[in-house]
Amino acid sequence: MSIINFIKVQQQAIKLIEEKNYEEALILLEDAKVKFPNKLDRLGQWKAETYCLLGENEKALYELNEVLEKGLWWNPVILKNFAQELGPLKELEDFKLIIEKCREIYDLQKQSSKPDLKVKGNENAEIALFALHWKGSNTDDFSQQLAEINTSNEYLLGFPQSSQLLSHHCYSWDDPDIAKRDLVETFKQFKNRYNLKEKENVILGASQGAKVAIEMTLDQEILGVNRFIAIVPGFQDVKRTEYLIRNHSNKNIRGCIITGDKDPFYDQTLKIIDVLKSENIPCKFIVQEGMGHTLPEDFPKVFQDALDYVMN
């Protein structure tokens, strides 16, 4: 089952829980555990949170333990600090044991985490896209999300995976220095393996990956790419990006930012657009009405508009 279908399950579950249709949400999530066994950590967490909302703490603990028994796990910080619905469990010894087990696994996995590169598409394509995943995602999921823009196999896509482990098979670009190191390493592999000097190159990213894609384009010396497409960029703090824009060394930048007016980072994105304009950096701004922090429903068309602009 594809990541697109999983996202639909997630959206449906959130809607049911917001409407307090807890029993229906539990049935949906239990069914999804069979269809998406590699997402059991998220599904088990959502089921546990739903059980907590119903006051059924033992069933919530069962769901969390089942995830660990199946070989999946969480960054303990997620369960302790961000899963607010699990609050009723936090003083229970069984929950503390789950946290400790997760901490052991996370620390061990973090030591061996390293950058990776997945490549898909047409090796003979004229355009190569270097696509940076969302925070909390990975190359497998992101490559599935972008599959619909390459159904005619007209692009070569390189998907770098960060070495910054966030949780089970989830990665982030939190540390900019590590992100830069990882991207230099993976782009070098991509460039040498597929002769990118003979292609038109574009950096593309979603959410935190979009923010990093913009920043990597600003410095000509990092990757040597002039074009970017940023999808719902996650500008939690615009100061670093603003500084890089005002002090950029790449004089040939051309980009496109795609976002929605319901995106939680929309106001920060408007600030970045203003700074790009003040520095005379050509950047098309596509705003999807009513869209939140997600890909546009008509993503292939929106992507084509963005690509046409950056390729001029």
TrEMBL record:
InterPro entries: AB_hydrolase_fold, BCE_2095-like_N, TPR-like_helical_dom_sf. Residues 6-105 form the BCE-2095-like N-terminal domain. It comes from the Bacteria. Pfam families: ABhydrolase-like_N. This is DUF3089 domain-containing protein. It comes from Chengkuizengella axinellae.
